[in-house]
Prior knowledge:
Blueprint: H1 18-38, H2 41-44, H3 53-57, E1 61-66, H4 72-80, E2 98-103, E3 108-111, H5 112-115, H6 130-134, E4 137-142, E5 151-154, H7 162-167, H8 172-182, E6 185-191, H9 199-207, E7 215-220, H10 227-245, E8 253-255, H11 269-288, H12 290-317, H13 325-334, H14 336-347, H15 357-364, H16 377-395, H17 402-411, E9 460-461, H18 472-483, H19 494-502, H20 508-518, H21 528-542, E10 550-551
Parallel strand pairs: 1-5, 1-6, 2-4, 6-7, 7-8, 9-10
Antiparallel strand pairs: 2-5, 3-4
Helix pairs in contact: 1-12, 1-16, 8-9, 12-16, 17-18, 18-21, 20-21
Amino acid sequence: MPLWKNRKDPEEETQVYFSAVDGLKKLYNGKIKPVEKLYNFGGSTSHSRELTDAEFDARPQIMLLGQYSVGKSTFIRYLIEGDYPGSHIGPEPTTDRFIAVMHGLQERRTPGNAVAVSGDKPFKGLAQFGTAFLNKFECSQCPSPILQNITFIDTPGVLSGDKQRIGRSYDFVRVMEWFAEKSDLILLLFDAHKLDISDEFKSTITALRDSDEKIRVVLNKADSVDTQSLMRVYGAMMWSLGKVVGTPEVKRVYISSFWEKPFANPANAKLFEDEREDLFKELRSLPRYSSIRKINDLVKRARHVKVHALLIGYLKSQMPSYMGKAAAQKKLMDTMADVFRKVQKEFGLPFGDFPDLQKFKAKLSDDDFSKYPKLDLKMIEDMDAVLSKDVPGLLAQFPSEREDQYRSLAREPMDGDVPTPGGKGGGGGDGGGAAGAGPPPRPAAPPGAGGNPFGGGSASKNHGSSDWAITMAQQSKYTNIFKTCNPVNGLVSGEAAKSVLEKSQLPYDALGKIWNMADVDEDGYLDSDEFCVAMHLCHEMMEGRTVGDTLDPKLIPLSKRGLGGGKE
């Protein structure tokens, strides 16, 4: 597979910071969401309505944007090494809808109206655009390993002329703003033979300024021109973009051709391969730094929420109690620019955190300012605490040198639960067993229902290897997570482990398979050793590696190799 084949460190794990994601949810639900509800943030701005847990837990998302026939669908097809349900590639405008390309054990297409009410997918916010848009949206699932780490958003090709813009039954630019806010990366694709920027494409790029740091440019089909022409094409594209973007900063541009065919111009093959690998390197980094990106997006949202609350509170304070409400509101609307300046000066806010003036006025045009809530300074102080204390606390959880931390953990194993090579597996003990002795007695199962919390039949277990493939560093890390599941008698039930394993964002079918393989003794519970196996398999799948239908003999805990795979 082209995206992962050149990995220099295949053993490096994806950084899945469970505690950081949980911390983000608590911050948002406890301190930011109440302010949004009180001052109607989602309903009165261009930002999405309140966030859901599925949006926090979502895989990194990449949105592809460009005019028709620039290679958006071909780009996705090249990365996932095959077609996805609903894809159609041709020189004419082929993609007529938004398609979320996600992972699934089986190929499936789900219509937009059903996706928008699905609790396990991060698209509930699209319901605000109505049935007209949802009829042009669908979720396409296929079993590509790449999609275990990344979700792609394929968009309709942008056409030139008023006919296409007028003919749309939904607000194309607003939908693009919504997807851009949720995306980790936005790829603007250009064809080497199609550099013009239509009016709709221009308005869309302009609307993405709040997500400017996520935008990258791809000059696709670059092998279809010779070297001299490529220089002119690149210069013309940058000149066109410069007029639209309106900032002195230059966007990162990747120049290559993204399809299975060999390069038509071998003279620039080395350049194209290097550019392609640079882009793949950035795509590979998305899952690893997804939590940090989510923190960044939440900080941006919190700053906008604070400014919005201060504006609404000021408008409320300027309204009379009894007579003259209509005249006062009209005056405030006419002098909204002055309102922005007064709020900015009074609270010392950066002007870049303020919403677009015209959009803000349009959203408030039907509101009654006298019914707005008064400014709650305590809630504003809580918002300041989010930015000054809570977020830095979350960032402190991210180690700067992960390998050094692992080596430190390996030198200082945790008491009791850490399996040791040639010794006993997690449940405690003094480690003083006689040589050649069989596995220690298994503790009694905790009360409550055991079994696979994700469903599915049993998986085959192979036995007979002499060493355990899970390193001491991995054991220490997974054992710490195991302890958060509140084990009883050294065991955790399916219900106790379910919430942790679900944070991998793997499909339930895959999690059920992992549980069956990790539950070596098939008693419906996981001890510390078996939990390490489950976590290791989750990371393997998240990295895009094939796990297989049977457990690798080297992954079977040493404490379980005398059981023969049967129930106790």
